[in-house]
Amino acid sequence: MAAGSHVKKDLPRLAADAIGRYEGLLIELAAPVGEAESVLAAMADYAIGAKPEG
Is pTM, for the whole model, over 0.85? Predict the structure, then answer.
């Protein structure tokens, strides 16, 4: 869930290109979901409570 090259390089470039093409367009890029504390906490809670299948 870490930010890969698409998030770090491609997405900002695509956003900038779109902003350049469409006057008045505003795009704000948020931090990757995998870096959100609430998401990290939810994944940790899930991992702690996970039981093996089968």
Answer: no
